[in-house]
Amino acid sequence: MRKVHLLHLLLPAALLLAGCDKIDFGDDSITQTNAQGQQTGAVDDSDWTTDASWSKREAELFPDLPFSFAGPTSPRIAAPQFLLYPNPAPKHVVFAVALFPGATESIRARVHFAIVDRAYRVQQRGTLYAENSLYSSLPGYTLRLGLALDQDKLKKGKTYRMYYVLADQHPDAASPSFLAKGHGDIKISR
Fold it and tell me: What residue range is the signal peptide (predicted)?
């Protein structure tokens, strides 16, 4: 009899703990955009912005980066803006990054990303990059980086979260440097 009562106490506690380590996408969790990057519906204000900090679980999605990304956005860039379109997403999307380098800066941008399911299981990982540097003589510059979504792992109708780390891989620098990090939710439409 005592075993049955103990089981009734442990089972709800185990279910509660299991649910704590999942991503809550919410009801209107994506920022809806068309193929030109224009917003067409619901907007999730926490998506496609910069994140000042990440949980340990989120940071562990990028174990191989050769630089620290623990802090807030680098002062080397002012208010970077991010967008993924279209969203809901077909097979191919554009990840756009609007950069505003400082007065004496040039940046060769790299976007390291991990797309995860609700349980933080990585479904797709990679790096998006531009071969050319962005120079400070430009008042602002938008990179449009193509991304082919993994059709085998990302299922139609499901929502996933993309975490990204923006870095500078300038050829004159000894190693890459951190610029910004953030996340956004993607709903698969194909």
Answer: 1-18
Q: How far apart are CA 27 and CA 81, in angstroms?
A: 24
Model-level pTM? 0.84
Locate the DSSP E strands across the chain: 81-85, 92-99, 106-107, 109-116, 122-129, 134-135, 141-148, 159-168, 177-187
Q: Domain residues for 121?
A: 23-187
* Bond prior to 80 in cis (omega within 30° of 0): no
pLDDT digits (tens, 9 = 90+) for 11-69: 444 444 444 567 776 656 899 999 999 999 989 999 999 999 999 999 999 999 999 99
Instruction: Tell me the C-alpha distance between 174 and 29, whole Å.
Output: 39
Q: What does the block give as tokens for 173? A: 């620098």
| CATH code, domain with 147 | 2.60.40.10
The type of residue at 138 is L
Contact present, 31 and 184 (Cβ < 8 Å)? yes
The total number of structural domains in the chain stands at: 1
